[in-house]
Amino acid sequence: MSERIGLFGGTFDPPHLAHLIMAEEAKNALNLDEVWFIPVHTPPHKQRENMISGEERLMLVEAAIEDNAGFRTSSVEIERGGPSYTIDTVRYFKQQAPETEFFFLIGGDMADQMDKWKDIEKLRRLVEFVFVNRPGYNGYKPSWLTQVEAPTMHVSSSMIRRRLRDGETVRYIVPGNVLKEIERKKLYGQK
C-alpha cells in the first residue's frame, strides 16, 4: 500500500497555530500518513524585506512540530536556493518516492493566485491540491481543489511579526517552543 503524504509549503515566518491546525485537519480528513512542512527559500509571489533566513525558519518549524509524530520538515527548497517553485519540489518528491500519493496543502490566501503558479497544469497532474479555508477568504477558488474544513483562527505571520516588533505578546498564537526560539535568537526585532 502506498503512502499518502501532505506537502505544506510556505514561508513560515514564523510558523503559528493556524498552520498546525490546517496541517492536522488535512491529515485527519484525508487519512494522510504524514504532513511535511517545506519552508521556501525565496517565495516567488510574496516578496518582502527582512524575512529571516531559511535556516532560522526551518528551525522554528522544527520547534513547532516536535511533539507531533505525524509531522516532519523538509529543507529541500532551502538547500536548492533561488525562487521556490512548487513544480520543482513536487517533481523532486515524485522522483524520490514514485509510489507515494502526494497532496499539496494551500490556504485560502493562495487559492486565488494559483493561475500565476509556474506550470500549474503540469503540477495538477502530479499532485492533488487541498484547500484549507482561512478566515476572511471568500474569493475565487478553482473547482478542482479538494476542500477541507478546519477550525479557523484570524492569525497571520505578518500580524505576529508586527506584534513582536511592537513588544506585544504572541503567547498562545505561536507554539511555546517557537516563542522560546524567537526570544532566544532575538528574531523579528522584538523589544
UniProtKB/TrEMBL annotation:
Cytidyltransferase-like domain ranges (all copies): 7-163
Pathway per the UniProt entry: Cofactor biosynthesis; NAD(+) biosynthesis; deamido-NAD(+) from nicotinate D-ribonucleotide: step 1/1
Gene3D superfamilies per the UniProt record, alphabetical: HUPs
Catalytic reaction list: nicotinate beta-D-ribonucleotide + ATP + H(+) = deamido-NAD(+) + diphosphate
GO terms for MF: ATP binding; nicotinate-nucleotide adenylyltransferase activity
CDD domains with a match to the protein in the record: NMNAT
Domain of life: Bacteria
EC number: 2.7.7.18
GO terms (BP aspect): NAD+ biosynthetic process
Transmembrane segments: none
Keyword list, A-Z: ATP-binding, NAD, Nucleotide-binding, Nucleotidyltransferase, Pyridine nucleotide biosynthesis, Transferase
Keyword Transmembrane among record annotations: no
Matching NCBIfam families: cyt_tran_rel (TIGR00125), nicotinate (nicotinamide) nucleotide adenylyltransferase (TIGR00482), PRK00071.1-3 (NF000840), PRK00071.1-4 (NF000841)
Job description of the protein: Catalyzes the reversible adenylation of nicotinate mononucleotide (NaMN) to nicotinic acid adenine dinucleotide (NaAD).
Recorded family membership: Belongs to the NadD family.
Protein name as annotated: Probable nicotinate-nucleotide adenylyltransferase
Species whose genome carries this gene: Marinococcus luteus
